[in-house]
Structure formats: structure tokens, C-alpha cells
Amino acid sequence: MEGILPDGLVGEIRDKYLKPQLQAGNYGQAFYDTMYVLSSYIAKDAHVELSGSPVPLRTRARAEKKGFNVVGWLSF
């Protein structure tokens, strides 16, 4: 992977995408953003296009809410 992702580029990606989110406590977003950028570079080198849209990262508040709101569902 060194040819596609040299150390300098990986360091830039780390500093721009990984570190700020980790320092803010957004661990999932840190890894999501970093992997998305890395995979974009790999796809470009392989002359392929990543299709579809990335799955949105669920926020902690949304992840903790499970089930459904019966009152809201029954409201007319």
C-alpha cells in the first residue's frame, strides 16, 4: 500500500480527519471519515469508482433510541 498511500499522505489524513474527531470524543466519526478518505485513494489508484452513498453514521443519541413511539404512531 506504500505506493498508493505514502507515509506523508497518511499523516495528512490522520491530522485532518482522525485526530480532530478523536480529540472531540467522536470515535465512530473519526474512523468513518478516515476509512472513507483512504478507500477513495485506493479506488482512484485501481481506476474504479466507489458507487452508492456511504451509510450515514448513527449518532450516539439515535443509536440509544430503540423501538418506536406508539403515541406518535397512533396520532392522527
Give a written overview of the molecule.
The structure is a single chain. The chain is mostly helical and 76 residues long. It has 4 helices and no strands. The chain has helices at residues 7-23, 27-45, 60-64, 70-74. The longest helix has 19 residues, at 27-45. The termini are far apart.
Features of the shown structure:
disordered C terminus; 76 residues; 61% helix; mainly alpha; flat
Summarize the SSE layout with pairings.
Layout: H1 7-23, H2 27-45, H3 60-64, H4 70-74
What is the gyration radius calculated from CA atoms? 18 Å
* Secondary structure tally: strands: 0
Give the class from helix and strand content and strand pairing: mainly alpha
Strand content is under 5%
Supply the number of helical segments: 4
Poorly predicted regions = 70-76
Intertermini distance? 57 Å
Q: How much helix is in the residues?
A: 55-70%
> What order do the SSEs take from the amino end to the carboxyl end, as H and E?
HHHH
Shape: flat
Provide the residue-averaged pLDDT: 80
> Strand count, sense and closure of the main sheet?
none
Can you summarize this structure?
Helices cover 61% and strands 0% of the residues.
